[in-house]
Each structure stands twice: as C-alpha cells, then as structure tokens.
Amino acid sequence: MSPLGGWGMLAAFLALLCCRESGVKAFEGPEHLMVGSGESQFINCTASCTDPKNIVLETHLSKTLLESQAQWKLFKVYNISEDEKLLCSFTCGGKQETKVFNITLFYPPKQVLLTLWPTSVAVGTLFTIECRVPAVAPLEGLTVTLLRGTEILYNQTFVGTAPSPQDALVSHNTTAHREDGHHNFSCEAQMDLRSRGGGLVHRVSDPQRLEVKEPEPNTQMVIIIAVVIVLLLVFVTFVFLCFVFSQKWHRGRTVQMRRRHAERD
Questions:
Q1: From CA 112, how far away is CA 191, in angstroms rounded?
Q2: What's the average model confidence in pLDDT over 52-63?
Q3: Distance of CA 34 to the CA centre of its chain
Q4: How many whole angstroms separate alpha carbon 139 and alpha carbon 265?
C-alpha cells in the first residue's frame, strides 16, 4: 500500500478511537479522495441525524464492513482500478439522504531512472543529466529534482491533469568540473497531492558517478599549428637560399667586372 493508503487507514482508526472515547459522531473524511491504482480505501459513511436507518455504501467494487455504530459505518473498498463515485445513503426521519465520495485514481512514481550522457567527459565540456519517471498521473503536483550530492542542479514542477499515466521526463545540460567526479548524481521525484485529498509520495533514483578527465589537446588545432610551422620553415629556408644565391651571384658579377677592367688597362 502506498503512503496515501496508509494515510487513509490512519484517519479511519483515529475516527474509531474518537467515537469510542468521546461519543461524538465519527470522522467523515474528505469527499474527494486520491487513491493509488489497484489499492484499497477506507470509507466512513456517517449520517446527519441521531437515529439513522439503513446506512449503506453503494458501489460495484468489493467491500467489507469493518465496524459500525448508531450513526456511522466504516467500510473498506478493494482493488480500485478507475475513477469512482461511491454513494453513502441513509434514512433520517423517513427521508433518504445521500453523500457522494469522489475517488480519483492516481499513479505514483514507482521508478525514478537517471541517465548521465556521456558517462565520461573532459573538464569544461557539456554533458546531459536526464531523469525519467515512468507511468505517473496526474502530472500536476509532480516535482522532479536533479542533484549533485546534496546540491540542487535543476528542478521542474509539472502541470496538467491528464488522468492516463504517462512518462515524466526532465533533461538538463551542464558543464563538467573537476569536482564533479567526486559526487554522486541522483534524481528525486515527489508527488504532492495533499491539496486534492491525497498525500505525499517520494522516490529517489539510484546514484551514479561521472568520470571526469583532463581536457585532451585539440588534434585539429595541433595539425594546423604544425602545418603553419612547416610552411614558415619552408618560407624562411627559401628566403635564406635566395639571399645566399643572390650574394654568390653578386660576388661573381663583381669578379667578372674587375677582370674586364683589367684587360682593358
């Protein structure tokens, strides 16, 4: 039974204790109830008069009468698998009266799945933290929180009241730091239905570690730098050879000019 079912049981037994000790009528409970799929629920049918007749809980579901007093009867309803309306009826002073309990089915988070992608990253590069909560409903009131150790990295509260179960997905991109490799990453899912007659359900994923490596040199940049250096060396060599050959040619030319002058003289 989920924590919400436990809340209903506690309320029912507190109601019985209250009635036995004080003599006042039993706790009737909220008219709008949130019940987990396939679970049971306690329903307290309480009449509005002191001498009611024929207190009955009308439902097609299986039920058991747990206890009764002059003004109330406590039932347990089993295997609730869809939204239901349960009808409590009784007769006061010859007039039939009714009270409706509206039961809304919910699908609590039973699994919280965390994925780190990639699982091995270099310092300063991006990685993705993804959290998936399968088959939950309603999404309204569901908060998913991404954690690094105890630090909150990101959280998201969902909206929407679709009754059919669906996956809740949260994804967050962040930059890897050296200290990330020393912390566990985890994901928490919390479904808060207290404002709708339910309770609080909390689930946590298995922790995961991220492998953080020192940044590798950029291969493409290294190749570009190497090509530039080679071209620069070729250019310098070419200029040097041009200079050497020009000096040699200039000296040869000078020698020839001197010989011609000497022959003329």
A1: 12
A2: 93
A3: 22
A4: 113
Phi/psi for 126 (5° steps) reads: -85, 145
Task: Identify the residue with better confidence: 164 or 151.
Answer: 151
Q: What is the pLDDT of residue 265?
A: 63
Task: Report residue 135 as tokens.
Answer: 């088959």
Question: Token pair for residue 257?
Answer: 């000019």
Q: Which of 163, 110, 161 is nearest to 1 (CA)?
A: 110
Q: Which of 30, 131, 50, 62 is closest to 93 using CA atoms?
A: 50
pTM of the entire predicted model: 0.62
Residue 154: CA count within 13 A, CB half-sphere: 12
Checking if the pLDDT of 74 tops 90, the result is yes
pLDDT at 15 over 60: no
Going by C-alpha positions, the residue among 69, 75, 78 that lies closest to residue 37 is 78
pLDDT of 53 above 50: yes
- What is the residue-wise DSSP string for 37-50? TTEEEEEEEE-SSS
